[in-house]
Amino acid sequence: MNNLIFKHRFLIARRITQVTIMFLYFAANAWGFNFLMGNLSSSKILNTIPLSDPYAVLQMLAAGAVLSADVLGGVFIIILFYMFFGGRAFCSYVCPVNMITDLSNYIRRKFGFNKIQKRQPASRNIRYYVLALSLIISFIMGYAAFEFISPVAMIQRGIIFGLGFGWAAILIIFLFDLFVLKNGWCGHICPIGGFYSLIGRFSFIRVHHNHENCTACMKCKEVCPESQVLFMITKDSLPVTSGECTNCGRCVEVCDDEALNFSIKNYKRK
Ligand code: SF4
Ligand code: SF4
After folding, report:
1. I want to staple 259 with a disulfide (CB 3.0 to 4.6 A). Which of 94, 130, 163, 214 is the partner?
2. Domain that holds residue 154
């Protein structure tokens, strides 16, 4: 039992944080329990500490909005936080969509879909083009464009206020990742993930690969939602430097040979 918990320690931590955050938003709306009010774009802890999604704020800036000190303070806190823990820790520890895409991925692995679709037919850079396009459209239209169509916002609004269109967004992303493209939404299209990948380049916390211990079983690459970041597996002892790593810890959990672990970035070592 203890071993089972240890083998899934990061998964358990991720689910606890994801569910707790959504529950706190829901509790603030339903019962006025104001520990965490708002939503993933803009919130307040204890009605005092602001938290603002930097990507949503960037869209607002492009749209010509004037930002309050509160919003800028919230952006500062969030950027500092994710520069330490890894930008895309947002994706694996906070975003509710991750629970849906993880499920699709799990089913794909269980039923061998990944073996059928060996080559990924789409570029992972699409997310950066969607990011740039959303800023251009925000500038032209005068409102935060992606916030209107974001399935992430739809799902979290659904969880906080009652599901409505949230169900449709959940189903579409689930089926898309299951049948069309492995890691399709989070790993290819979502501009929020694209934005946090840029912040993640500065992350202090990194997965580190120890070549000496590696037995080339490839379990880590099989479960990694951004397997391109593990290019050093079986080749070299190196940290994962790409901001696209979500710091989800799946690779660390599945490696039975202690060849992968989290470490603090060493700025002296290149
Ligand atoms: S899971 Fe561990 S031993 Fe297997 S290939 Fe990855 S790093 Fe090497
Ligand atoms: S390298 Fe490891 S921590 Fe990073 S995304 Fe892949 S599985 Fe998750």
Report:
1. 214
2. 54-199
